[in-house]
Amino acid sequence: MRECALILANGLFDSVFAKTTHGLLRGPSRYTILGVIDPNHAGQDAGRILDGQHRDIPVFHSIAEALRLTSVRPTHCVVGVATVGGALPDALRTELLAAASAGLTLVNGLHYLLSDDPEISEQATAGIIDLRKPRRASELTFWTGEILSVRSPRVAVLGMDCAIGKRTTAMLLRTALRAQGISAEMIYTGQTGWLQGLRHGFIFDSTLNDFVSGELERAILACASEMNPDVILLEGQSGLRNPAGPAGSEFICSARAAGVILQHAPTRSHFEDFEYLACPLPPLSEEIELIRLLGSQVWAISLFTRGLDDTQSSQIAEELEACHGLPVVRPLEDGVGRLAATVREKLFS
Amino acid sequence: MRECALILANGLFDSVFAKTTHGLLRGPSRYTILGVIDPNHAGQDAGRILDGQHRDIPVFHSIAEALRLTSVRPTHCVVGVATVGGALPDALRTELLAAASAGLTLVNGLHYLLSDDPEISEQATAGIIDLRKPRRASELTFWTGEILSVRSPRVAVLGMDCAIGKRTTAMLLRTALRAQGISAEMIYTGQTGWLQGLRHGFIFDSTLNDFVSGELERAILACASEMNPDVILLEGQSGLRNPAGPAGSEFICSARAAGVILQHAPTRSHFEDFEYLACPLPPLSEEIELIRLLGSQVWAISLFTRGLDDTQSSQIAEELEACHGLPVVRPLEDGVGRLAATVREKLFS
Questions:
Q1: Whole-structure pTM value
Q2: Do A274 and B145 touch (CB under 8 A)?
Q3: Using CB atoms within 10 A as the burial measure, which of A186, A269, B287, B345 is most buried?
Q4: Cα–Cα dist B256/B286, whole Å
Q5: Residues A213, B116: C-beta atoms closer than 8 Å
């Protein structure tokens, strides 16, 4: 029997903080999703709030209400929100305790480890999966250079910033490539990728810094040797110049990505969560040049269009395409057929 | 009474793997150094092997021999070598056990934690200091942006690669600036900086990736608020395009370094430890441009001259200076007076 889960999105469902929830609703998901918990949207359909598409997944006020109203018994309770620095908000704690005492396994992607919380871990008799629990140096792999002999080419989905749609685009691109007869695999680098059932990857941001490149290489080597795919997509993290934690060069310098799909939010002026700082997002043209100097190439730009209507985002896409001479796509509006075609052309023509 | 230490450099003293040993011999050091252990050079003076300068610090064959021959009793035994991935070689284990059972406190900067080794930790009744013991997420700080209000300007000493003299140049520059009446402080980012007695910093490579920028910011904020220095020097790590672990953008994007001193090894063709890979060191001119795009500026180039004679390195310095239009210095041959003058001119003229 497939495992069934409730997702906690307490009060944050309609924000970028709930990107784990959004990813699981869009699918795929390791668990069958029975419902989302968020008092702000209780009684509505979760899909409608996400993107207007009914998905027959209700939003509940609380774990207690969900347990009362769902006909199938959930087995897991997934924390579906991220928080700055990964702490545990009080509203979440209350619901986690309710889920734990109802016998659900807790699945948590915050830096805050539930297994270290005496109250929660005592209640969670069915178990805790702390996805971001750091592994020790002795369990981690240093980079070796073996990646240079991997024949499956890598394509990285990087972004100008956090929470800008990198994983979503990569997941959609995997599906589109497969539909075109290309065997595409994807390396996850965040907890959501694992929750979506991806087999190869690691949690980038809770890895000891010295081993990030080695763990990335290890995941790619395992994927290549088990699946021998035509292409391996890499889920990027953060942005090359994100002051809160610049990242991305690992995908180019260590994983030797042949090309990059660059995720961009045209109306975002500042780095996510730092709108109050005198620290604006740098221009797209500089990012393209930076990626070239690091040793790869931007093959296409993919837009995060939240807050824009269809006409606006379509016009911006056209303008950017003319300006940069690269395909510019809107994955959620138009799909990623054009991205898949670009990847095919670059790699196989 | 000052603490006295023996340094273990077993068989590696004359290599870049012993850069911790080299740093402690050059000074400053948290401990008075009584001797170095390396059977390959036993009986010689450690300073002579380092750079030809007698320092009255003997090299011993073993801990046992050192304990027999030193008149002052050592209190600490410091692991003075780094190893790829940070494992513990057998030769070191034997000497560490000898030091532990003689009642010395073990000080270790490897990823391999001595406190996790049952045999060693049982013997080490005087204690173990594992410098690279990772801290938990709950003990770490996320980046906040408070750095933007720090008035002491930052200057980063970055490098084209690992083991290329970044820390040495930064330490010398601190001394030179102070001699010119500039209050200069330095943030350490590796275990050697701590061993040299620096007060502010953290161990970059054993920090969970998500918190590297925050810990760097925290160290700078603490230094600025306690010392209010004219300038804060930042010890860089790795290189921007080192495939085994690219790093450096944190110092520019997160720590907002106003300028960069770029450490360069003119005759090194490949990244350290990866000479066998088809992965050459990129050209200096690209690195300078990369640093500009990341948001800072190379102010001067500093040479790692190992393997070159005086005439060769002097000629290379001249050529590079003409080519890049930047001051190019040889810190160990000529001192860093010119670097100090450049920093003064850029910041205070």
A1: 0.95
A2: yes
A3: A186
A4: 20
A5: no
